[in-house]
Structure formats: C-alpha cells, structure tokens
Amino acid sequence: MVMWKLLKYMKNYKKEAFLAPAFKLLEALLELFVPLVMAAIIDVGIKNSDIGYIVNMCLLMAGLGLTGLICSVTAQYFSAKAAVGFTAKLRHELFAHIQSLSFSSMDQVGTSTLITRMTSDMNQVQSGVNLFLRLFLRSPFIVFGAMIMAFTVDVKAAFIFVVVIPVLCVIVFGIILATIPVYKKVQERLDRVVRVTRENLQGVRVIRAFCREKEECRIFGDSNAALVRIQLLSGKISGLLNPMTYVAINVALIVLLYVGANRVDGGFLLQGSVVALVNYMSQILTELVKLANLIITVTKAIACGNRIEAVMEVQPGMEEKVHLDAQYEIDAGKLMSEVPAVVFEDVRFGYQEAGADVLSGISFTAERGETIGIIGGTGSGKTSLVSLIPRFYDVSGGCVKVNGMDVRDYPLAELRRKVGIVMQKAVLFQGTIRENLLWGNEAASDGDLREAIRTAQAEDVVFGAKEGLDAYAGQEGRNFSGGQRQRLSIARALVRRPEILILDDSASALDFATDARLRKAIAGLPGDMTVFIVSQRTSSIQHADKILVLDDGVLAGVGTHEELLETCSIYREIYEFQFPEEKRKAAGREVRS
C-alpha cells in the first residue's frame, strides 16, 4: 500500500509515536490484573468474611484504575500530538506539491479532488493515525494477554479462548479485506459531489440565467444518491463486524460458564476463578469492539492516504533549470538590444489527452517595445498561445524564446519575473487592495502602487473609497464589479514593471472609452515593454504594431490593421461585423486620436 510512503512525515514525532503505545501497553497490563484481584476478593475475602482483606483489595483495584487512567490520558496526549503534527506536516507538503504542479498536471488531477484530499482525506488520515497509535498494540495485547492469563487460572477452560480468538480474527480481517476497496469508492463518489457542488456555486448566475435549477438539482441528486448507495454498502459490510463478534463471544461465554460450572462442581475451580475467566472473556469482547472501530477507521485512513499519495506522486510535468546559463548571464546586457523580446519558432501545442493540437505551425517575432494584438474566434487558441510565454504549459514541438533563449532554459521564477500577465478571469484575493497589488512586487512603494493604479484607470475604484489602498477586497474580489476587478488585476501586473505584459482579454468588461484610455496609458509608459493584447474587439488591437489572427490554432494572418483588412478575410469579417459602414469613420478617428 502506497500510504506507508507517507510515514516519512512522522520522523519528527518518533518520541510521541513510541510513548503513546507504550503508555497504552502499561494501562493494558494493569487492566489484566483486575480480574485476578476480583477473584481474590471472592475466593479469599468474601469466602472468609475478611473485611480488611476486601478493603485492601478494593484499594488496590482503585489504585490500578487510577494509574491506568493517568497512563491512558498521557497516551492520548502523545498520540494526538503525533497525529496532528504528522497531518500538519503532510498537509503543508501536499499544498507545496500542488503549488509545484504545472497547469497540465492540475488539469489532469482536477480541482475538486484536490480540495477533497486536502480536507476530508486529510482528516480521515489524522483520525486513523491517532486511533492506531492508541490501540494497535493495546487491543491485541489485551486479547492475547487475557488468553495467557486464563491459562494461569485454569488450563482446560482456557482452551475455549484458543478456539474463539482465531474465529474472531477471521471475522475481523475478512471484513477488513471487503471494506478497503469500498471505502476507496466512497471517497471517489465524494469527489464527484464536491465537484458538482463547486461547479454549481461558481456558476450559480449562469444556472439561473438559463433556468437550469431543476436539471442541476437532478444532477446533484444523482451524485448524492450514488454516494449514499456506496456509503450504505460500506456501512452494511462494516456493520456486520459487531454482531458477528458479539455472537462468537457470547457463544464462547456460554461454553465457558458451562465448563466452569462443571469444574467448580468437581472441585477443580473456585467461584472467583470462574468470574475471572468471564472477565477476561468480557475484556476480549470489549477490545475486539475497539479493534473493530480501529480497523474501520484505519481502513478509511489507508484509502484516503493512498489517494493523498497518488497526488504526491503526480509529477510536476515540467523540468526546471535551477540556474541561468552562465554564458547567457555574461552576455545578457549586450544581447538585450540585439535580440527580439519574444520569438515563436514553428510552435505546436496540445493539451494532455486532447484529440488534436490546439496550436500548430505558429511562427512570429515580437520586437522590444512592440504591441502585439491577438484576435480570433472562440477556441482558436489565443489564450493557449500567450500561456506558452511564461511557460504555464510546455510546447509539443518547436520552441518559444524570450530574450533570445528558450523558455525551457530559464528557471521559472526568473522567467516569470520578466512577464506580467492578466488572466481572462480577473482574480483578487481576500485582503486589502494594497496586499493584492503587492503580489506584483512586494518591494513596491505607495508611489509605485498609485502610478500603476493611474495607468490601469482604477483611481476611482481605489481612491473613491475613504480607505484607499486599505479598502477591503472580499474572496475573489466579489465586492467589486467585473470591470473593477479587471482594472485592479491590470494594476497588479503593472506594479511588477515587466519586460513583457500580457493582457488576456482583460478589458472585456471595460467600456470603449476606458479601454482606449487604458491602451493609451500603457503605450505611454517609459521603457521598451513588449505588450501582448488578446481581445475579441478589433478596436482594442487595431492600434497594435503587429496583429496575429488565429483560426483553429493556425496563424491565418500577421500584419498591421490596414494590411490585414486587405489581405486577411477572417480579420476583415470580424472588423466589418463589429463596425458597420456608418461607424467605421468614427472608429478610425477615435483610433487616430
């Protein structure tokens, strides 16, 4: 089972992992002496009416109980410390591993299952480790210890223990083998419920807009019903454990009382010894019930641990260089003015498990300081193309160069310091506006932040509120409109002062006037920043130095606005659809201004 690979995260808790079962064994040892004390009270104290002996034995029993309680609490402390510490370390490692995964690896695993494994699976593993440390030695020790102590009382009666314990082991371990695969399916069904719930919560507006509430309720109901069915199956299987063990133990008790009564009649046993044997049988029953709960919990923990380890074994999907090439560092200053900012050389790209390439045969050059517009129909590969520049994905063929060097030869941190990107979906994180903007550059001053805000046309968003930069942004920036989130996301990218700025349809929620001011402000920034603008609007890119027209992953045209109107039918069709004849002159005047 791959879960055992996770035990390396327990190395800082070796002491606790040793002391927890040690104290539990001490408690179990004390518990095994209690039936003997009870037998002595009956066979000596009560038989001889010796009150002093009875009192002394009762005090001894109380002492054993109190000492056992102290040992139990101490064991609980150490096991909880080990379980919580182990899970905290594992959770940190899992989160760090997820952060190292490439976009393609995360696409393959899925967001909903990652959430389940970070939460529900992790809690199951913690419960399993906690219970395992407390009971994995104690319960077997009590079971076999009670059998051994029974032999010290009466050999013939003790053979009943020899028969019943293997029967119980067959019952317990048979149910274990049946439940492990079922619990794995339970977590898989839970993944589906989480995914459906997450999709519904994220897409609630779309669902309501298309009146799909009943259909989505049906889908959720089906997913929930599948989870209920598999949980009922697992409950039915594990539910057999207690009744079957109780039946075996009670049958053994009946036989034990019958044999014990005959032995007492024959003068081979005293009444207290029979009581001691019954107590040992009861201890076995109690511990087997605990062992059953332990097995159920540990079975769940193993299934969940295997799922966590499965994520840990997912490879990042990208090989990353640790250091820049030494020669590149030496020649960097000289090369900067001589090589293009970005070069695509016969680039081909496809997503994992996709039927066909998303991009094929893409070649173009973006010089320093140029503005590159990218346009095309939905699904033509615009976002995929710009995602290759910061190396969110690796190309399937060809290469992408930044500053004359293949992006695969850069350390990712070094490459992405050169690139500022604003995604299609503007994402803000819970906190203040200042905290969100400092993601672009942690060392940025308030002056730098204000300059980025002005360029992004977000002054009314930030300084329109009395809190200013300290205004609160809710989860995903839901207390801002779509346009406000986009402008703040653009400001965050500008704070970085990147060499390459990518705006991936990031002005879709802005009106034409604000979009025009934004483009003018970005064009007026000092330096030779290369700007990529992905847009569905020809008005947003017709000012660009070079426009790329994509059609089904193929470069259908490259040139300026005027050149493409003459040579590219796809671009001309998009432009004429967006700008009917009566509006084109006005649009042209707006662009020139």
Question: What can be said about this structure in brief?
Answer:
With 593 residues, this protein is α/β, with parallel strands linked by helices. The chain has helices at 14-48, 51-100, 103-109, 111-118, 120-135, 138-153, 155-202, 204-209, 213-239, 241-265, 271-312, 326-336, 382-387, 412-417, 433-437, 446-455, 459-462, 482-495, 512-523, 538-541, 561-567, 569-578, 581-592; strands at 342-349, 359-366, 371-376, 397-402, 405-406, 419-422, 431-432, 472-473, 500-504, 530-534, 546-551, 554-559. Among the domains are: 2-181 and 236-312, ABC transporter type 1, transmembrane domain (ABC transporter transmembrane region fold), CATH 1.20.1560.10; 421-497, 3-Layer(aba) Sandwich (Rossmann fold).
Task: Give a structural overview.
With 593 residues, the chain is α/β, with parallel strands linked by helices. Among the domains are: 2-181 and 236-312, ABC transporter transmembrane region fold (Up-down Bundle), CATH 1.20.1560; 421-497, P-loop containing nucleotide triphosphate hydrolases (Rossmann fold, 3-Layer(aba) Sandwich). 64% of the residues lie in helices and 10% in strands. It is built from 23 helices and 12 strands. The protein has helices at 14-48, 51-100, 103-109, 111-118, 120-135, 138-153, 155-202, 204-209, 213-239, 241-265, 271-312, 326-336, 382-387, 412-417, 433-437, 446-455, 459-462, 482-495, 512-523, 538-541, 561-567, 569-578, 581-592, and strands at 342-349, 359-366, 371-376, 397-402, 405-406, 419-422, 431-432, 472-473, 500-504, 530-534, 546-551, 554-559. The strands form 3 sheets. A 6-stranded mixed β-sheet has the order 6-9-10-3-11-12. A 4-stranded antiparallel β-sheet has the order 2-1-4-5, with no helix packed on it. It has a two-stranded antiparallel ribbon with strand order 7-8. The protein is elongated. The protein starts with 13 loop residues before the first helix and ends with a helix. 34% of the residues are buried.
